[in-house]
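Morning, I've got a small favour to ask if you have a moment. The fold is given in discrete form, as structure tokens running alongside the sequence. I'd be grateful if you could look everything over and explain what you see. No rush at all, and the record is pasted right below.
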Amino acid sequence: MSESTQDSGAAGDGLKTPVAGAESVEAEVAETETELLARAIAEAAAERKACDIKCLDVRGIVSYADFIIVMHGTSSRHAKSIADFIVSDLRPLKIRPHGIEGQDYGEWILVDFVDVVVHIFNDTMRDEYAIESIYSDAPRLEFDLEDGSPPFSTPAAVAQPAKPDGDDA
């Protein structure tokens, strides 16, 4: 992180002195930007009907990321679609992932935005790896979707499959 400075006051000497407290202000701004990125990713995933989205605030717990977002699709194809949509949705903001792994199979896709790491599973692999249990003490980033729907639950169509025609039981 760059250190904030101010002119030392001597005309033309070009020397800079650190400003007290400026580093902590810059850190708060960076954290806010990272939180906004995490929210944008989760909202993009919700728009593509990702299931059971969890946004874990791992600042102070791990050194490789500030947020870990975990979700699943109803199939490997759905998981790939979610990953593709997240990447394309952030492209106009000039945000690109550092790396993407697992798209060939779609069982577990990792999208690395450096400060935010996204894990997208198909429905069977999520339970097998149980990423959330590793960070069970991490606070969750909570927020509502713009359309007023509940935050990141399994879509109703997935939770309660439609009954076949003629089955009124």
Notes: The beta strands are 5-7, 16-18, 51-57, 67-73, 99-101, 108-112, 116-122. The domain at 18-144 is CATH 3.30.460.10 (Beta Polymerase; domain 2). Confidence is low (pLDDT under 50) at residues 1-9, 14-19, 148-169.
